[in-house]
From TrEMBL:
It comes from Fundulus heteroclitus. Keywords: Immunoglobulin domain, Repeat. The lineage of its organism: Eukaryota, Metazoa, Chordata, Craniata, Vertebrata. SUPFAM superfamilies: Fibronectin type III, Immunoglobulin. Residues 281-376, 405-499, 506-599, 605-703, 710-809 form the Fibronectin type-III domain. It comes from the Eukaryota. This is Myomesin 1.
Length: 1324
């Protein structure tokens, strides 16, 4: 049995001929039910023909007699091939796939070849279009399949039959898995395409034939493409992507038993332009024509023109073996062909092209293949055998014969830039080396001019340049050799110089159709009267964006293209433009919008048919959902059955006329103890799919076992890296007693049967179970068993393998409580499609009314809530609502229903400047719509003269201001806040003593504010006693002006007037030198000017006697302290000398003054004074001869004072001090200039007792002695500094520091090193 098949979705392979008849038979009565009819279904509705009956008979005969044939001698059984069932004609829709099949017989098994229109079909000629498959074995018929991906199959098919083909006596099966998909790259990137190849049976070191094709052209390894075969994986690497690499890539794996192919498209985008707005690079640069004088370079225009239209192209050349590119044309050429001249004969060149527009120049194209500047005649006479020798063959010339006329002169190509002529040499053979002169003349004249006057051309082709555009010319050719110049050829017709190739017209109507979730099939009407058409460019735009992007960057020649890489769910429009060498056409009309969405198809067949229950006249079936649902929800299933008698299946009968939605169905009206087979078909809005494979044969007899039947409809959801959820339906057959629990078993996908283990040790009554503690990345399968009182029943079917892995982007259900207090469950899915639905369940039973969910939450809402998203790859999640969680959510809901505006601070009151009263509070957060009501004693207050309200919504501060308080303002103040549904209020009670105290304080501050607007007292009148035993009356005043006067009064009589005071704020004083009783009285100071006045009073009537006693005590105290002082003495310290005296005790009232030579000493950092205990001292740091002289300390006792003196001279302690402190006596220069490499030695004298410590510094950093720099200090007097060989790094500032307990001194010098050979003796 042979078939050729182009079905786009092949769900059943390897079916027998009777099964094929069964598929058409069932399709027939499905069509009669008028459900989902189409032209294909009508075609399937044909009744079984005589040929089909013959096929069934032939198959049975073949199966029954095959063993008999094996035992007999092959020679006696051999007979020629013959058709049992011939191929029949088919009528199919355009673009639909078709299957052709036939049944043949013959011994040995024949070999089949398919023909179309008497031409053998070669799968290699059109990879991916035809698929021929042969499966020979002893018991099964042979299949041939023919796939046509685009065009309908027309014409006749003939099948000559020949002998079988095998390799090593083995028929190999090829499977291409782990394939590459549609790929996207960018120019300059590297891309790898690869697929895993499985060949069965696997032979060690067997090497299949691996071939890669691009657009049906076989690829060979090059610097652009690398291929690799690892033994089980074929890889193609595109090392440097260019737009030339865009196209349909096909992997072909072949053995002598057959071949398999896989194809996918690769798209290459332009690299980012070097200049913004520049066009994309041209592509497919190649040599159109070449001889020793010129090479015509051709290319294809890019799809991306940039910001402006392309003005033209620059052609660059590079001689092979060099890397120097030379631009061939000074001005851009618009025509996509250009003759390059100025070449060296015999040398090879490569070419590249750049496009230019107003914005700039594009990147260069991919380099062309090398082309030699050589005449075709020379190229034809030159060969290069494998030995590497170059052999040139020529006929012996006939000397002295002038050649005849060239023939068939014609213009092969004409543009406004050049004209190409071609002709045939004269017919005579054996002529001496013939060359040619080309001549031209303007039409309507007979003035012929020789074009190549200097050197004749050798090849019978020639390009003419520098012709005047728009003029008409005629051309002719003369032959010449050493014997002379022959007669001219017949002239050509008049040729007008100009582009003979027009830009193609715009393509016609564009029709997009849905294809997949990311692609659209675009078809269009071809350009009319287009000459030398290169192809088409397609552009797409999202509706409303007004942005057009290219779908292909390499022209396609057909009128149908699949645009990939689109956004699912978006609406796209498309337009097309044609291209030839003359340029790009106008755009086609824009297509109607189309949504990017997978096209709808009929579903694949269900599978896994099992029996759930069996009685005397009925069986309950179950099955699994199809792996491919066709892009639309399955609307139902149809079940068929047939009786099997003695192993021979009968005719199919429909079990249900109306589709069933569940994946279980009871088939009734069966006969007891008869055997039956079943098949199931799924239906969606696109139609009814093909039936499943026939089930196993089941015996219809009543089950009487005590244990329950198998659970069914196992489903896996909520798959994570460590857990999954398994759901199932209870068994239909309960057994003797009702089912009371379930057990779940699990094992790794590839593990043996012994690896099954239980998930739950105690039976669960629920029909779902969360399986935890899975290993990430491991594959698992599961099954379920039911139990009743009699025991555990039969296991269910095993689930499909499940990978324990959390998919990227997986989200979980989360709970939200909105502002209205409504509790809601939310689930987000990133892989949603337009047809997806969110199916919510409670305890894994679908919730039909989700609107009233959690409307009045209570204990009845406790449970497990789950959500499943349809039309996704199993997106699902669950959430367990426990009693504790429900309680928490209800509390949050109440807070949201009846919200309270939080407060940072409650209502409070404070007094401000001028005695203003401020009531305020601060809210945590309020919106712009927040409002506040101000209430006093249940009366709402409003803005006015008495009340000033402010509400800062940014900070939440709310305040109310009152100028003053009156008795009527006593009561309760309340701020009532409202923000949407949220409310709050805060109150403050001001009554009784609290209110009176606040009112009194407010009134006082109000008066104070008015008082301070003019001159006023900051501090009132007070008194103090000075060290001179005087009494001072003083007060601090502020806000003074020059016009302000201060009047002093005693007992109402003015005693002093201060006018024109020169300060704004200061102290007024009144001195009483020797206070007595007559000074007793009431003293008053009055400040006044035009702004007002202020008064301060002090009563000294009862305080004069006390003041007199205080003054006397102070006087005697100071006198005692002055007289108790000891004579001045001098002592030495680490810092210098100190002069000091002692008193019995020290008091702050004692004032002392230090004098030097009868003048008061001005203190500084070097000369300081102070008190330590009872010692009064004067410190002189690092004294010199200038500090010698008479020093005195004067005590102020309130009258004349007491003075102690001492003479500081060059004798005694001072002399001792000057001798003993550390000093640098001399010997060091200020600057030392020395030549590099010389030795430097410096010595200085050091003095001091005790012997000082010596430290050397360079650039203020301490240095130590080493071999390069030697430091010495000898005899406590001589310090030396030596550098053995100076270099430029020794330049810098040097210091010597000497120190002992009596003082410190330093000496500095600078070292400058110069290099003598430097110009001018440059210093370092």
């Amino acid at each position: 049995f042979c078939s050729a098949d182009t079905d786009s979705q092949e769900f059943v392979t390897g079916l027998s001929d009777t099964e094929e008849a069964r598929a058409r038979d069932t399709a027939a009565y499905m069509a009669r039910r008028d459900l989902f009819t189409s032209g294909l279904e009508m075609e399937r509705s044909e009744v079984i023909s005589r040929k089909e009956a013959m096929r069934e008979s032939a198959e049975r005969i073949s199966l029954n007699k095959r063993e008999h044939f094996k035992r007999m001698n092959e020679d006696s059984l051999m007979h020629a091939p013959e058709f049992v069932i011939k191929p029949r004609s088919h009528t199919v829709w355009e673009k639909q796939c078709v299957r052709l099949h036939c049944t043949v017989s013959g011994w040995p098994d024949p070999r089949v070849i398919w023909y179309k229109n008497n031409v053998a079909i070669d799968p290699l000629a059109s990879p991916g279009k035809f698929k021929l498959e042969s499966r020979y074995n002893f018991y099964r018929p042979t299949w041939w399949q023919w796939y046509s991906s685009v065009l309908p199959i027309c014409g006749s098919s003939d099948l000559p039959l020949v002998g079988p083909v095998s390799e090593y006596g083995i028929t190999f099966q090829i499977h291409i898995v782990d394939t590459f998909g549609v790929s996207f790259g960018r120019e300059g990137e590297t891309m790898s395409l690869g697929s895993t190849v499985i060949i069965y049976p696997a032979l060690h070191r067997y090497q299949p034939e691996i071939q890669w094709y691009r657009d049906d052209v076989l690829l060979s390894p090059s610097k652009w493409t690398h291929t690799h075969w690892s033994g089980d994986r074929a890889t193609l690497t595109l090392t440097h992507l260019n737009k030339e690499d865009e196209g349909l890539y096909t992997l072909r794996v072949a053995t002598k038993s057959g071949y398999e192919t896989y194809s996918a498209y690769v798209f290459v985008k332009d690299a980012d332009a070097e200049v913004e707005g520049a066009p994309g690079a041209p592509l497919d640069v190649y040599c159109l024509d070449a001889n020793k004088d010129y090479i015509i370079v051709a290319w294809k225009q890019p799809a991306v023109e940039g910001g402006n239209s392309i003005l033209g192209y620059f052609v660059d050349r590079c001689e092979v073996g060099t890397s120097h590119w030379i631009q061939c044309n000074d001005t851009p050429v618009k025509f996509a062909r250009f003759p390059v001249t100025g070449l060296v004969e015999g040398r090879s060149y490569t070419f590249r092209v750049r496009a230019v527009n107003k914005s700039g120049i594009s990147r260069p194209s991919r380099v062309s293949e090398p082309v030699a500047a050589m005449d075709p005649a020379d190229r034809a006479r030159t060969s290069a055998p494998w030995t590497g020798q170059i052999i040139v063959t020529e006929e012996e010339p006939a000397e002295g014969v002038v050649p005849g006329k060239p023939s068939e002169l014609q213009v092969t190509e004409a543009t406004k830039n050049y004209v190409v002529l071609s002709w045939k040499p004269p017919g005579e053979k054996g002529l001496e080396g013939v060359m040619y002169y080309v001549e031209k003349c303007v039409s309507d004249t007979d003035n012929w001019q020789r074009v190549n006057t200097e050197i004749p051309v050798k090849s019978p082709r020639f390009a003419l340049f520098d012709l005047a555009e728009g003029k008409s010319y005629r051309f002719r050719v003369r032959c010449c050799n050493s014997a002379g110049v022959g007669e001219p050829s017949e002239p050509t017709e008049a040729i007008t110089v100009g582009d003979k190739l027009d830009i193609p017209s715009a393509p016609g109507k564009v029709v997009p159709t849905r294809n997949t979730d990311t692609s659209v099939v675009v078809s269009w009407e071809a350009s009319t009267d287009a000459k030398d058409l290169v192809g088409y460019y397609i552009e797409a735009s999202i509706v409303g964006s007004d942005v057009w992007e290219p779908c292909n960057n390499k022209p396609v020649k057909g009128t149908r293209f699949i645009c990939h890489g689109l956004i699912t769910g978006e609406q796209y429009m498309f337009r097309v433009r044609a291209v030839n060498a003359a340029g790009l056409s106008q755009f086609s009309p824009i297509s109607e919008p189309v949504e990017v969405k997978a096209a709808i198809a009929s579903p694949a067949p269900p599978y896994g048919i099992t029996i759930l229950e069996c009685v005397r006249d009925a069986m309950v079936l179950s099955w699994k959902q199809p792996t491919f649902i066709g892009g639309a929800d399955i609307t139902g299933y149809f079940v068929d059955y047939r009786e099997v008698v003695d192993g021979v299946p009968g005719k199919w009968h429909e079990a249900n006329v109306k589709a069933v939605s569940e994946r279980a169905y009871r088939v009734s009206e069966l006969r007891e103890n008869r055997k039956y087979q079943f098949q199931v078909r799924a239906a969606n809005m696109a139609g009814v799919g093909i039936p499943s494979r026939p089930s196993d044969t089941f015996l219809c007899e009543e089950w009487t076992i005590a244990v329950p039947g198998p659970p069914h409809d196992l489903q896996v959801s909520e798959v994570r890296s460590d857990s999954l959820l398994l759901l199932w339906k209870p068994p239909v057959y309960q057994g003797r007693d009702p089912v009371n629990g379930f057990y779940v078993d699990i094992k790794e996908g590839e593990a043996p049967e012994e690896a099954w283990r239980g998930v739950n040790t105690k039976a669960t009554e629920k029909t779902y179970l969360k399986v935890k503690n899975l290993k990430e990345g491991e594959t698992y399968v599961l099954r379920v068993r039911a139990q009743n009182k009699a025991g555990v029943g039969k296991t269910s079917d095993v689930t499909e393998p499940v990978l324990a892995l959390t998919k990227p982007g997986t989200k979980e259900i989360h709970v939200e409580v909105d502002d209205d207090g409504v509790i809601s469950l939310n689930f987000e899915c990133s892989d949603i499609t337009p047809d997806s639905k969110f199916v919510w369940s409670k305890n894994y039973e679908e919730i039909t009314d989700t609107k009233n969910l959690f409307k009045s939450p209570g204990e009845e809402d406790i449970g497990v809530y789950s959500c499943l998203v349809t039309h996704t790859d199993g997106a699902s999640s669950s959430y367990t609502l426990s009693e504790e969680e429900l309680k928490r959510l209800l509390e949050v809901s109440h807070e949201h229903k009846y919200p309270i505006i939080p407060l940072k601070s409650d209502l409070a009151v404070e007094l401000q400047e001028k005695g203003k009263v401020r009531f305020w509070l601060q809210a945590e957060k309020m919106s712009a719509n927040g409002k506040v009501d101000y209430v006093f004693n249940d009366n709402v207050l409003s803005q006015g003269e008495k009340y000033k309200m402010n509400f800062d919504k940014n900070t939440g501060v709310i305040e109310m201001l009152m100028e003053s308080l009156t008795p009527a303002d006593e009561g309760t103040y309340t701020f009532q806040l409202n923000d949407g549904k949220a409310t709050n209020q805060s109150s403050l009670v001001l009554i009784g003593d609290v209110f009176k105290q606040l009112q009194k304080e407010s009134e006082f501050q109000r008066k104070e504010w008015f008082r301070k607007q003019g001159p006023h007292f900051i501090e009132g009148l007070s008194w103090e006693v000075t060290p001179d035993c005087c009494v001072i009356l003083k007060c601090k005043v502020g806000n003074m002006k020059k016009e302000t006067s201060a009047l002093w009064h005693k007992d109402g009589h003015q005693i002093k007037a201060d006018e024109h005071l020169g300060f704004t704020e200061g102290v007024l004083k009144l001195e009483i030198a020797q206070i007595s009783r007559k000074d007793a009285g009431v003293y008053e100071v009055v400040l006044k000017d035009e702004r007002g006045k202020d008064t301060s009073t002090l009563n000294l009537t009862d305080q004069v006697f006390k003041l007199k006693i205080i003054v006397k005590i102070i006087f005697f105290l100071l006198l005692f302290l002055a007289n108790s002082s000891t004579p001045l003495k001098i002592t030495s310290t680490d810092e210098g000398i100190r002069l000091y005296t002692f008193v019995s005790f020290y008091n702050d009232l004692l004032q002392v003054t230090w004098h030097y030579k009868d003048s008061a000493i001005s203190f500084s950092d070097r000369i300081k004074s102070g008190v330590v205990g009872e010692q009064l001292w004067l410190q002189i740091t690092e004294p010199t001869e200038k500090d010698m002289g008479k020093y005195a300390i004067e005590f102020n006792d309130g009258k004349g004072g007491l003075r102690r003196t001492v003479e500081l001279s060059g004798q005694g302690d001072f002399v001792f001090l000057n001798i003993d402190r550390a000093r640098v006596a001399g010997g060091l220069p200020d600057v030392v200039t020395i030549q590099e490499g010389k030795a430097l030695n410096l010595t200085c004298n050091i003095s001091g007792n005790p012997v000082p410590e010596v430290t050397w510094l360079k650039n203020d950093r301490e240095i130590t002695s080493d071999e390069h720099c030697i430091l010495k200090f000898e005899s406590g007097k001589f310090a030396s500094f030596t550098i053995t060989g100076v270099n430029t790094s020794d330049s810098g500032k040097y210091s010597i520091l000497v120190k002992n307990k009596f003082g410190t001194e330093s000496g500095d010098f600078t070292v400058s090193v110069f290099i003598p050979e430097e110009a001018g003796g440059k210093r370092k």
